[in-house]
Amino acid sequence: MGTLRLFDAHNHLQEFAGRADFARMVDEARKVGVERMVVNGTRESDWPAVARLANEWPELVVPAFGLHPWHVASRTPGWLKTLEARLREFPHAAVGEIGLDRWVRDFDWDAQTAVFAEQWRLAVALNRPAQVHCLRAYGHLEQMLRDERKPERGWLLHNYGGPAEMVPAFAALGASFSFSGYFLTARKIADRTAAFTRVPGDRLLLETDAPDMAPPEEFSRFSCFPREGGGPANHPGNLAGVCEGLARVLGVSPEALAARTTANAARMFLGDAG
Fold this sequence. Notes:
TIM Barrel; 274 residues
């Protein structure tokens, strides 16, 4: 298999912004074909690190700024104005990571839905793609979005773990779907195969979710420097293994899958036609 052309549709590498060995990690990812990556903010406190990476690596990093449902309680009174200012600072930035989550402990559902709706409407108003996290709330998300305008650039259900039967309904609402290396584990692959074989070809993307969601050893090309709390982090270069694994599932070549998913991601996040 030759070098692929890959686009990591979702990660959180702001966790490593400022590290002296960050450039090494980027170089390793590039050597296996990663040409672009969307780096997602999750709360006000990490938006500056996302902005720093976007400024330092403009040819590589597409920034995304959003308030993740896990961090809704930490928002300040001026969070939405700050978010809009960040998005206007970076005209190609996406809105994300935003979403709904009934899995996290002690969640405030009313606050989650209100914060999600405000960010979704901001994406529509600014014509930005949205990156959506959803856990144990797929039915509510689908119902909620039926009555909302949709971002013209599209929106991504990142790391889609929902029912296979809901793929057509979300696709009809304009969703794209990204596949992560975690889905290649023995515990997940059968269930995710059923879902991702139903995803339209022009709505399929690849992601690492680095430093989270590492693929199984068979598909890991790199291990990253240690994270706080111990253990290796997922590496953006592992996107090549993710591509290889999903290509096996779909019965296509890694090169064909890389070309398709990179074109889909470029269209959504860069505005490219192909």
